[in-house]
């Protein structure tokens, strides 16, 4: 065995791998399972997000300056005294949707800055006595949807700043238990919905007046509601939805609840007579009255008295199963400005239904069963917003929107519209937004839009449009946004968008557009266009050749272009002048286009590009020249592109890069030179690569843990791919201490040696000038000589080839390969079962065999790829390649293996791409040529291979 440094390193590596221990030192930006946002230095912004990570405990080693911590939606069951101990800067803590049963008494002791605390949707049954002791800045507390059946009210007394408290969805039964909470000095919003409270009496709450503004008592089985003194003078919102059927309403003075502005009586089941009494307790001009989920008949009987005694401005009548609206119900509701009738089953609306509502501004009739636009709507000259989506209308006539001169917004999506008559919108001179998506419109024409001179937003997505003609939108001179996505558009005539002088946003994605159906003149005139979406179409190019007429030359203001996912086969190529004219482009999204290279001139027209997405293409590698014109890039996404190295970034000089996304590539290690070429990197996202768990990644692991500027997202989840023994285990569990020590040790030794030699040299030179010159010549001779020797060594290998194969292929090796190569051709082969020295450690045997053979032949089959390719044999062989800079691997394919199946074996794929390899002929075919080629491969000597570098 040759004791080269390479061999030594290998052995070191192997030993290290056997000595794995768990050790992670966390500082800086790295928090296991979490994403950290903000900068460690500018501490007032630091936020840590760890939602939905399957955590069972509070994450460790949170940066002590964390301001916001979100650990909601995990499986945490216990919060311990020490978990949050050091977070004295924390202002916002979200622990909702966990399984928390226990919070230890001192868990929040040091959270002296805390303002918001969310413990909703957990399994708390009690609250420890001293839990809130130091939370004097807390303003917002959620304990809803737990299992709290008992509280010691004094627990809440330290919360002297508390404004909002939510205790809904627990198992509390008596108001006396929560009484002290009402008297917290700052409390304004108190929610005790959905508990077991069976009575609410002011005598049990307080005898002085309180500041409460919102009180939610809904979904409690209240039998008594008794207000006998004026303790809620400021109450504005009162929620009594779904209280018990037989509640006793006992409000002594009609002035006590006079300031209530919003009253929710959804699902109320009291008898009509009592309801009238109840309504009279409230103001004669209520802001909002909700009467939902009560039922058609009952509501019809209630609306009139409510409008008489409360004259509400907003009336919400959803989910009542109304089938019709007659002229009677609403005739006294003259002050209503917003009427919400959605989610009913309305089919018929009387012509006079809204006659007396001469202040109506907003009308919502969506989610009903209307077959046409109700005639009652015509002439409501005050109407500003009309919502009739989710109905069953098939047609809009030119009379439907007559005289709606103030209408600003019209929503008619999700109907069955097939026809819109010409001039249907001509009275809507003020309309800003028209949404007609998800209908069945087959075509449009210029006359439809006549009169819409102020329209800014037109939404026609998800219809069945197949072409756009010249000037179709020419009346829409104020339009800024046009959505035509998800249609069948195949043909866009030249001048289709003529007249859209204000258009900023155009969405054409998910249509049938090909490179032929859009020409450069299609977009002419769109001088202000900023965003163009062309995803999911059929644009495709056979080559990168320069286009005669590039598409976007007139879009000089375009900032955002998205063209991902084209056609059945992808776009295939980006023509080198595809982006010509897009001088203002900032974002280019080109994922999933089935392109395998990018021409270095592609981005020359777009010097201000900051975000480039090339993910899910077959790029494998990119030239750094591609990035030369786009030095302001701050975000680059290249996930799933088969990258084997990101060394191209080193020369690309992307000093402004902030976020690099390279997930699911074939990267096995990251070195410091690439990272140091990205001085402003904030996020590095590279999950799902094929990491090598050895000292090659020692630097990376260390850096990811301590970097204060860059966060390696989900670094703790990175999995090892090599060595095979560690496949699937976590990269960050690798013990890198020994690697670091080695490097330092070598550095120490080498620098010490240099210093020593220099000193000796200086001394020698001083005392023995002539002898030194003589020694120098001797040294030269020695170097020359050893070079010669090494050349000779090439001929003094013990074997000609080491055969690496899987036991499944042993038959072929023994019956075909061995007789031919050893018998016929006379090579000496090394086979592990035959030639390994018994008693010697297996690794040493392999090392000796590879270094003792001139070549290594890999017999490749599916079995081989699965079990041997990443084995130590191959790693050793490739290290020898590095070591000696010459090719020693000969690949023999026993079976047909399509290249895409090779993609997980990136090193193999690369070899196959770069070099010729040998395939064993199919059964019955002649094998002569194969053996001849193998002979040539084995004969090839060092001289011819010197330039090959893997
Ligand atoms: C409305 O009708 C549905 C189904 O017919 C029924 O389940 C629901 O309870 C009704 N709602 C009211 C408020 O009556
Ligand atoms: C409508 O509101 C005005 C002023 O707020 C009030 O004077 C009038 O009585 C209200 N009309 C009805 C029918 O309640
Ligand atoms: C519209 O009406 C048809 C029958 O006329 C019915 O099958 C369909 O479900 C209705 N759609 C809606 C959204 O009510
Ligand atoms: C690039 O951006 C800068 C500043 O945002 C601007 O001054 C310059 O005109 C832009 N270049 C082009 C070609 O649009
Ligand atoms: C890299 O970029 C910096 C500034 O962004 C510039 O000064 C330097 O010349 C560039 N280097 C190369 C090799 O392009």
Verbal overview:
The protein has 950 residues and is of the alpha/beta class. 21% of the residues lie in helices and 15% in strands. The chain has 18 helices and 47 strands. Helix 10 (810-824) links the parallel strand 43 and strand 44. It is globular and about 110 Å long. The protein starts with a helix and ends in a 5-residue tail after the last helix. The structure holds 2-acetamido-2-deoxy-beta-D-glucopyranose (5 copies).
Q: Concise description?
A:
The protein is an alpha/beta fold and 950 residues long.
For the record, what is the CATH homologous superfamily label of the domain at 798-939? Answer: Toll/interleukin-1 receptor homology (TIR) domain
Q: Fraction of residues in helices?
A: 10-25%
Bound molecules: 2-acetamido-2-deoxy-beta-D-glucopyranose
- How many E strands? 47
State Rg.
38 Å
Number of helices: 18
What is the CATH third-level topology name of the domain at 798-939? Rossmann fold
**Low-confidence segments, ≥5 residues, pLDDT <50?**
1-27, 780-794, 942-950
Cα(first) to Cα(last) distance is 23 Å
Shape: globular
Proportion of beta-strand residues: 5-15%
Look at the structure and give the CATH class of the domain at 798-939.
Answer: Alpha Beta
Can you name the CATH architecture of the domain at 798-939? Answer: 3-Layer(aba) Sandwich
Structural class: alpha/beta
Largest sheet: 29 strands, mixed
Mean pLDDT: 86
């Amino acid at each position: 065995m040759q004791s080269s440094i390479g061999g030594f390193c290998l052995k070191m590596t192997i030993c290290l791998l056997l000595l794995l221990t768990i050790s992670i030192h966390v500082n800086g930006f790295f928090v296991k399972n979490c994403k950290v946002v903000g900068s460690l230095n500018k501490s007032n912004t630091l936020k840590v997000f760890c939602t939905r990570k399957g955590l069972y405990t509070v994450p460790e080693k949170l940066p002590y300056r964390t301001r916001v911590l979100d650990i909601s939606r995990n499986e945490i069951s216990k919060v311990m005294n020490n978990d949050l101990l050091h977070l004295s800067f924390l202002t916002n803590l979200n622990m909702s949707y966990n399984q928390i049963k226990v919070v230890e008494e001192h868990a929040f002791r040091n959270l002296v800055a805390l303002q918001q605390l969310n413990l909703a949707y957990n399994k708390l049954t009690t609250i420890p006595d001293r839990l809130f002791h130091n939370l004097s800045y807390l303003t917002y507390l959620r304990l809803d949807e737990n299992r709290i059946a008992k509280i010691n009210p004094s627990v809440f007394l330290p919360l002297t700043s508390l404004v909002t408290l939510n205790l809904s969805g627990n198992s509390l039964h008596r108001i006396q238990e929560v009484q002290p909470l009402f008297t917290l000095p700052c409390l304004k919003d108190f929610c005790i919905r959905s508990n077991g409270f069976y009575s609410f009496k002011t005598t049990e709450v307080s005898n002085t007046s309180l500041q409460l503004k919102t009180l939610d008592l809904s979904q409690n089985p209240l039998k008594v509601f008794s207000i006998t003194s004026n303790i809620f003078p400021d109450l504005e919102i009162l929620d009594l939805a779904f209280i018990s059927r037989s509640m006793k309403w006992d409000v002594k003075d009609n002035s006590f609840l006079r300031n209530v502005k919003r009253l929710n009586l959804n699902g109320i089941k009291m008898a009509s007579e009592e309801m009238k009494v109840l309504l009279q307790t409230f103001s004669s001009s209520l802001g909002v009255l909700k009467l939902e989920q009560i039922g058609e008949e009952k509501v019809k009987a209630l609306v009139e008295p409510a409008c008489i005694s409360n004259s509400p401005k907003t009336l919400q009548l959803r989910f009542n199963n109304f089938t019709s609206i007659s002229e009677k119900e609403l005739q006294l509701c003259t002050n209503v400005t917003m009427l919400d009738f959605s989610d009913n089953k309305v089919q018929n609306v009387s012509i006079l239904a809204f006659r007396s509502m001469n202040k109506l501004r907003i009308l919502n009739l969506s989610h009903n069963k209307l077959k046409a636009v109700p005639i009652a709507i015509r002439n409501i000259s005050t109407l500003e917003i009309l919502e009739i989506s989710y109905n069953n209308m098939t047609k809009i006539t030119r009379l439907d929107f007559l005289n709606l001169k103030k209408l600003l917004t019209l929503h008619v999506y999700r109907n069955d519209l097939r026809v819109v008559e010409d001039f249907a919108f001509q009275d809507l001179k003020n309309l800003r937004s028209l949404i007609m998506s998800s209908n069945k419109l087959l075509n449009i024409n210029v006359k439809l839009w006549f009169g819409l001179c102020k329209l800014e937003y037109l939404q026609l997505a998800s219809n069945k449009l197949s072409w756009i003609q010249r000037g179709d939108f020419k009346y829409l001179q104020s339009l800024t946004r046009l959505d035509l996505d998800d249609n069948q558009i195949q043909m866009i005539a030249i001048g289709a968008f003529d007249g859209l002088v204000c258009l900023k946003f155009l969405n054409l994605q998910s249509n049938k557009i090909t490179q032929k159906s859009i020409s450069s003149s299609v977009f002419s005139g769109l001088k202000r266009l900023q965003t163009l979406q062309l995803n999911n179409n059929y644009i495709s190019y056979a080559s990168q050749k320069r286009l005669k007429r590039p598409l976007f030359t007139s879009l000089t203001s375009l900032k955002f272009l998205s063209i991902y996912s084209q056609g059945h086969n992808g776009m295939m190529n980006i023509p080198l002048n595809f982006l010509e004219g897009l001088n203002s482009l900032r974002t280019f999204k080109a994922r999933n286009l089935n392109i395998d290279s990018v021409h270095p001139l592609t981005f020359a027209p777009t010097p201000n590009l900051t975000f480039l997405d090339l993910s899910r293409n077959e790029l494998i590698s990119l030239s750094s020249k591609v990035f030369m014109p786009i030095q302001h890039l701050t975000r680059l996404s290249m996930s799933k592109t088969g990258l084997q190295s990101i060394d191209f970034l080193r020369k690309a000089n992307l000093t402004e890069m902030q976020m690099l996304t390279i997930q699911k590539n074939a990267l096995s290690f990251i070195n410091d030179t690439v990272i140091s070429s990205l001085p402003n990197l904030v996020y590095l996202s590279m999950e799902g690569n094929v990491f090598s768990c050895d000292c090659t990644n020692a630097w990376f692991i260390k850096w990811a843990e301590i970097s204060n500027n860059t966060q390696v997202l989900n670094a703790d989840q990175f999995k090892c791919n090599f060595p095979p023994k560690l496949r699937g285990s976590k990269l960050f569990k690798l013990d890198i201490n020994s690697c670091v020590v080695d490097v330092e040790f070598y550095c120490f030794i080498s620098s010490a040696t240099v210093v020593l030699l220099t000193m000796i040299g200086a001394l020698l030179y001083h005392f023995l000038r002539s002898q030194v010159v003589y020694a120098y010549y001797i040294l030269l001779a020695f170097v020359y000589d050893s070079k010669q020797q090494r050349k000779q060594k090439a001929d003094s290998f013990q074997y000609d080839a080491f055969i690496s194969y899987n036991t499944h292929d042993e038959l072929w090796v023994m019956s075909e390969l061995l007789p031919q190569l050893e018998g016929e051709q006379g090579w000496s082969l090394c086979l592990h079962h035959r030639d390994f020295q018994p008693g010697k450690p297996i690794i040493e045997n392999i090392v000796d065999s590879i270094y003792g053979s001139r070549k290594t032949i890999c017999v490749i089959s599916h079995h081989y790829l699965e079990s041997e390719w990443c084995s130590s044999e191959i790693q050793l062989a490739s290290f020898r390649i590095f070591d000696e800079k010459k090719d020693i691997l000969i690949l023999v394919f026993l079976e047909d293996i399509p290249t895409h199946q090779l993609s997980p074996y990136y090193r193999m794929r690369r070899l196959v791409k770069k070099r010729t390899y040998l395939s064993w002929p199919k059964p019955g075919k002649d094998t002569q040529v194969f053996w001849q080629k193998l002979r040539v491969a084995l004969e090839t000597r060092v001289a011819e291979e010197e330039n090959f570098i893997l």
